[in-house]
Amino acid sequence: QVQLWESGGGSVQPGGSLRLSCAGPGLLFSDFVMSWHRRAPGNEREMVASITRTGGTTNYADSVKGRFTISRDNAKNTVYLQMNNLKPEDPAVYYCKAAQIGRPVYWGQGTQVTVSS
């Protein structure tokens, strides 16, 4: 059963921006550490960014630092990934994940991001 729903993917030119959203109406978001991951064809899935339950701490993969920003709105049960200055190496399917010790891990079905000129 899918618990998380990503949206906001699409195709942009290099240097462009996209904002991904992940909603989880069936989950109490404030219980979970939220993160974004991506998988490009032929590659392993990698963590892109994570945010603690209250949003006080964020972490980013080195490849996206300074370009991507993760945020959350627990009142809306939504987490966001603002992606700026998209590069040719960023295309992938982007997934959100909800995780917390002692709880099941939830994944969305992913949203495609394409960067091409």
User: What's the number of extended β-strand segments?
Assistant: 11
Give the helix/strand class: mainly beta
Shape: globular
Q: Topology as H/E string? A: EEEEEEEEEEE
Query: What percent strand?
Result: over 45%
Compute the number of helices: 0
What does this entry look like structurally?
Strands 2, 4, 5, 6, 9, 10 and 11 form a seven-stranded mixed sheet that branches. Strands 1-3-8-7 form a four-stranded antiparallel sheet, with no helix packed on it. It is globular, with a radius of gyration of 13 Å. Helices cover 0% and strands 47% of the residues. With 117 residues, it is an all-beta fold. A hairpin with a 6-residue loop joins β5 and β6. The protein has strands spanning 5-7, 10-12, 18-23, 33-39, 46-51, 58-60, 68-73, 78-83, 92-99, 106-107, 111-115. The model has no long low-confidence stretch (mean pLDDT 95).
Write the layout of secondary structure elements.
Layout lengths: L4 E3 L2 E3 L5 E6 L9 E7 L6 E6 L6 E3 L7 E6 L4 E6 L8 E8 L6 E2 L3 E5 L2
Parallel strand pairs: 2-11
Antiparallel strand pairs: 1-3, 3-8, 4-5, 4-9, 5-6, 7-8, 9-10, 9-11
Q: What can be said about this structure in brief?
A:
The protein has 117 residues and is an all-beta fold. It contains no helices and 11 strands.
Descriptive labels:
117 residues; mainly beta; four-stranded antiparallel β-sheet
